[in-house]
Write the C-alpha cells for this entry.
Amino acid sequence: MTRVRTLDEVVASSQSASRSLTILLLAFGGLAVVIGGVGVYSLIAYIVSWRTREIGIRLALGAQRWQIVQGVVRQSLVLALGGSAAGLTGAALVGQLLRSFLFGVKPVDPVTFCAVPVLMTLLALIAAWIPARRAASVDPMKTLRSE
C-alpha cells in the first residue's frame, strides 16, 4: 500500500472538481449580476441625460422633486419588467431545447424563474435611484439657460 488516505481525504478529492466548477459558476453568475446592474444604471443615466431639459422645465413649472424621482424610477421599473418578461420567455424556450442536458433540474425551475426576475427588478430600482436623485437636483434655471 503506497497511498494510504483517510476517508475524509478521499471524499474531499472526489468532490473537488464539482466544488471548483460550482465556485466558478457562482463567480460568473455574480459577475453577470454586476454587469446587469451597471448596464441598467447606464441606460437609465443615459435616458435621464437626454431628458434634462424636460426635467428642468417640469421643475420650473412647479413639479416637486419627488415627482421627478418617481417618474424616473417608474420608467426604469417598466423597462425592468419588460426585460424580465422577455428573459423569462427566452429562458423557458432555451430550457426546453436544453432539456436533455439538465440533470436534477427541471427546464422551468419555479424557484429560479421567481427569484431572478425579483432580483433583477430590485437591482433595476436601486440602479435607477441614483440617476433619479441626480435628475431631481437639476437647477431649472441653469437647464433653461444652457440651450
In short: The chain has one domain: 40-145. Residues 105 and 120 are 22 Å apart (CA to CA). The chain has a mean pLDDT of 85. Residues 40-145 form one domain.
